[in-house]
Amino acid sequence: METRSLLLLLFAITSLFISAIGGQLYLGRWKLLKRSIGISAMHMQLLPNDKMIMFDRTDFGPSNLSLPEGKCISESHNTDCFCHSVEFDSINGNIRPLTILTDTWCSSGALSENGVLVQSGGYRLGERVVRSFNPCADCDWVEDANGLITPRWYASNQVLPDGKKFIVVGGRYQFNYEFIPKTSSSDQTLYQLPFLKETRYSPLIPNNLYPFLHLSADGNLFVFANDRAILLDYVNNKVVKNYPVMPGGISRNYPSTGSSALLPLILHGNFSIIPNAEVFICGGTLPDSNQKADAGEFIAASKSCGRLVINTANPSWEMEEMPMNRVMGDMIMLPTGDVLIINGAAKGTAGWNSAREPVLSPVLYRPNTPKNNNTSRFEIMSPSTIPRLYHSTAHLISDGRVLVGGSNPNRKYNFTALYPTELSLEAFYPPYLSSNTSRPSITAIVPGVNLGYKQKFSMWFQLKEEESLGNIYVTMVAPSFTTHSLAMNQRLLVLAMDDNGVQNVAAGNNYVVHVNTPATPALAPAGYYQLFVVHEGVPSKATWVHIK
Ligand SMILES: *[C@@H]1O[C@H](CO)[C@@H](O)[C@H](O)[C@H]1NC(C)=O
Ligand SMILES: *[C@@H]1O[C@H](CO)[C@@H](O)[C@H](O)[C@H]1NC(C)=O
Ligand SMILES: *[C@@H]1O[C@H](CO)[C@@H](O)[C@H](O)[C@H]1NC(C)=O
Ligand SMILES: *[C@@H]1O[C@H](CO)[C@@H](O)[C@H](O)[C@H]1NC(C)=O
Ligand SMILES: *[C@@H]1O[C@H](CO)[C@@H](O)[C@H](O)[C@H]1NC(C)=O
Ligand SMILES: *[C@@H]1O[C@H](CO)[C@@H](O)[C@H](O)[C@H]1NC(C)=O
Fold it and tell me: In its keyword annotation, does this UniProt entry include Signal (predicted)?
């Protein structure tokens, strides 16, 4: 019975994914939203009020915005009165300058259970800072100079199941991890993680920065660096599993910079059945590509991708090839459960002036297209006109578009370099926004948007008058902290629907579907999620829900 409904669900999803093949309309489109947002969007995090927090770095000279209230930053004989962080309202497009006074270059972050962005590390005076940003109309950054025990430059963060604590892993010369926020000022516990030392290409080439982190369905942490991976029981500081080496000899982490995403967690109606947690890693390049780029040789980036189910007894990599080579690609989960691979270059590596041949076309990856069908899981989308190389970002917003910003924040915001500093902000419209099938709209969540675990709730939605009911599923997306081609904390769950399916409840094409919330906080850490209903491959706009 369970197997049958799982198969039916898989079949439903698969047929949806396959249905969107065709002409130009189906390749997505682009729109330039702002020629300049004043800063370069090197880091992005969406808050539950639909405002996107963006920032670059504070030590690089004149952005195109001044700090609010005449403030200035003084660091090593430099006075900088320019702004390096903004809040972008994804609903009305307004921009509000924000105040960050310490350097956030190559930092990390996550959203906490109460919707506060907790962000950590950076460079020099910013390297041990933990900053927080409350989602409210006139809030600004609050900085704690001694929030971290040790400097964290190029570390990765993961929100833990309770949504209140975060693990911060690695960083340059940091073969260890710690937790934030500290429970007391005497909490100075640093946990060693030799794996981060072992996975360097050489002591001089630490090409395993910004390790990929994914919280597995059992609450342990998947950590990937270079081409190796472990499952870490971070509570007991124990490696509980060593995964097979990813084939191909490609390095996937900074500056060889591929990308990694946890594929949709497909939840079962029976709460005791744990879904597969499957990691998907694409792109990157050979480990010495950065050194070669410094010497003027820009070698081809990798096409290869691998999938690994991390919570089975004998995991093994399933390898695939993208239609194009890509380094510095971002992997963004769309509300449908498809993966958008966007930004980056076909040659070279991360680093200024270290890449060539910008890849302007995103690729859509449909994870559930069966392998034995010659239909590719990949589809090439319409190109942008703006190269998005080093320090570019992408982030899903609640209306189903993907915001794209940043690239090459060169020293002093050089706009005449080969690949100039980019202050522009674009939106990519995935193919579903050009579909002839109209968007469903969520009209109510009953009993309400505050959810608990192992519960049922009802989602009411409406279709256009003339539309007949097709395939329906419901997804829940955790907003990510995106930087350096890595969407930290990105998570998408396909919720289990009741056996009695979707009911037509009233005139005006109104329907209700009964769904289960996730069983445990390991599947969905406490906090805010965007809830979508997908009808015939076209998602609604999101309704924010909270789970704890
Ligand atoms: C493969 O996918 C195509 C496109 O959706 C479909 O028409 C075809 O029936 C599939 N073939 C097999 C063997 O599953
Ligand atoms: C900087 O802002 C001014 C207006 O304030 C605008 O005219 C100019 O184009 C901007 N420059 C860049 C590079 O964005
Ligand atoms: C739920 O799954 C568990 C574990 O597979 C199984 O033992 C149990 O019988 C299932 N419950 C129902 C109601 O099917
Ligand atoms: C897939 O393509 C190969 C070569 O083009 C062909 O031999 C094979 O029959 C095809 N399989 C299916 C399921 O269409
Ligand atoms: C900007 O970059 C170009 C090309 O590298 C260089 O020639 C120029 O001097 C730079 N301008 C500034 C202001 O640094
Ligand atoms: C979508 O609708 C337009 C206008 O009616 C039509 O020209 C187009 O062929 C349709 N596309 C598909 C794939 O049905």
Answer: yes
